[in-house]
């Protein structure tokens, strides 16, 4: 029996350049979900961490009911956590594209999850100017539902930009280890 050796995942400049050239928001979203999946696989192999990927309702031709999130994760200190991946070529922050990138159903799932005592997060990637943000899902849900403007100082758990660290290299892995484990 051989053990597969996983390389340390990182978002490379080549991968980011490829994402910048993607034509549709759906293709960009799939790229970002794959980047996160690679990081989750690494964490699962090395740490006390588990994740489950919910089926994508749109890819299944809407035969499935709306799913609560992209992933359900479990780490020793944060418990069960709903994780939603969001990416944009046009916007630097989730607060700039909240109405267009977070559906009413997604906001409702995160609101109900919080009401039941759970925690959730939105992991946002801006690809034109490499930004990485982690937002509290309950905060996002409340602001989406009420049509209010979000502020990174209130609901942003963590964030990096080209000035403060990076989405590139080990920035995403560091963020996930710090906030999902």
Quick structural overview:
The chain is of the alpha+beta class and 181 residues long. Helices cover 39% and strands 21% of the residues.
Can you characterise this structure?
The structure is a single chain. The protein has 7 helices and 6 strands. Helices cover 39% and strands 21% of the residues. With 181 residues, it is α+β, with helices and mostly antiparallel strands. The protein has a 6-stranded mixed beta sheet with strand order 1-2-3-4-5-6, sandwiched between helices. The longest helix is centred in the first third of the chain and has 22 residues. It starts with 12 loop residues before the first helix and ends with a helix. About 3% of the residues have low confidence. A hairpin with a 4-residue loop joins strand 4 and strand 5. Helix 2 crosses helix 7 and helix 4 packs across helix 5.
Q: What is the tally of beta strands?
A: 6
Kindly state the mean pLDDT as a whole number?
82
Q: Note the run of SSEs as H and E.
A: HHEEEHHEEHHEH
Please state the overall shape, judged from the principal axes of the Cα atoms: globular
> Structural class, from secondary structure content?
alpha+beta
Portion of residues in beta strands equals 15-25%
**How much helical structure, as a percent, in the residues?**
25-40%
């Amino acid at each position: 029996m051989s053990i597969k050796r996983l390389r340390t995942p990182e978002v490379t400049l080549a991968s980011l350049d490829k994402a910048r050239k993607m034509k549709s928001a759906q293709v960009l979203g799939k790229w970002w979900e794959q980047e996160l999946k690679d990081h989750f696989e690494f964490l699962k192999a090395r740490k006390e961490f588990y994740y489950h990927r919910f089926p994508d309702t749109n890819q299944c031709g809407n035969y499935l009911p709306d799913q609560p999130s992209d992933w359900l994760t479990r780490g020793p200190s944060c418990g069960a956590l709903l994780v939603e991946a969001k990416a944009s070529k046009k916007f630097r922050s989730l607060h700039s594209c909240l109405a267009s990138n977070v559906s009413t159903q997604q906001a409702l799932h995160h609101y109900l999850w919080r009401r039941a005592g759970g925690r959730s997060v939105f992991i946002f990637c801006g690809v034109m100017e490499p930004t990485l943000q982690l937002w509290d899902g309950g905060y996002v849900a409340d602001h989406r539902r009420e049509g209010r403007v979000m502020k990174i100082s209130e609901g942003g758990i963590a964030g990096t930009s080209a000035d403060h660290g990076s989405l590139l290299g080990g920035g995403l892995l560091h963020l996930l280890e710090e906030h999902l484990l």
